[in-house]
User: What shape does this take?
Amino acid sequence: MSVDPDTCITCGDTAVVATVVEVDGDTALVEAGGKRERVGVELVRPVAPGDELLCHAGIALQRVDP
Assistant: This one.
């Protein structure tokens, strides 16, 4: 996957699979393509570091099974 270093990693035209790095209440720090961003996780709770989530526009939409 290629991620533009100057843009939000989850705000493109397609959803992005990102790995949870840390969780803080209703948000999680996720990483995709070497970039990190905070996303809302209300729709997919509970989440833990290492989980993979399908994210779009700053929201985790679905858990991705390994």
Summary: The mean pLDDT is 90. The longest strand covers residues 16-24. The CA atoms of residues 3 and 33 lie 6 Å apart.
